[in-house]
């Protein structure tokens, strides 16, 4: 459904009036990053699924030069990854 790096839309916009979020962490909890102000929110997966509306852009389709707060693939910390 959604993966780390996807840009998603939630049912309600953030306080900064932007409704574009980047999925930063997946697990029992999901961390998302507001692409308007950079605020990070962590919520339980069940709560996220209730508030989630749709995927705007998949991670492999994102043009990083057009996103101000988008994490570059080199900066992602994936689980079970040896550096």
The percentage of residues in β strands lies in 25-35%
Order of adjacent strands in the largest pleated sheet: 4-3-2-1-5
Radius of gyration (CA) equals 12 Å
Tell me the number of strands: 5
**What does the main sheet amount to?**
5 strands, antiparallel
Number of helices: 1
Uncertain stretches: none
Average pLDDT confidence is: 79
- N-to-C CA distance: 27 Å
| Coarse morphology | globular
The arrangement of helices and strands along the chain is EEEEHE
Helix/sheet category: mainly beta
Helix content: under 10%
Organism: Bombilactobacillus folatiphilus
Protein name: DUF951 domain-containing protein
Please explain how this structure is put together.
It comes from Bombilactobacillus folatiphilus. It holds the Pfam family DUF951. This is DUF951 domain-containing protein. InterPro entries: DUF951. It is a single chain. With 83 residues, the protein is mainly β. The chain has a domain at 7-64. Helices cover 8% and strands 31% of the residues. It has 1 helix and 5 strands. Strands 4-3-2-1-5 form a 5-stranded antiparallel beta sheet. The longest helix is centred in the middle third of the chain and has 7 residues, at 45-51.
């Amino acid at each position: 459904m959604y993966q780390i790096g996807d840009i998603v839309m939630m049912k309600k916009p953030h306080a900064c009036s932007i409704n574009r979020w980047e999925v930063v962490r997946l697990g029992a909890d999901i961390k998302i990053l507001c692409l308007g102000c950079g605020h990070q929110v962590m919520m339980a997966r069940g709560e996220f699924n209730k508030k989630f509306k749709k995927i705007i852009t998949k991670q492999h389709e994102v043009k990083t030069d057009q996103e101000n707060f988008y994490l570059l693939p080199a900066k992602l910390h994936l689980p079970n990854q040896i550096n």
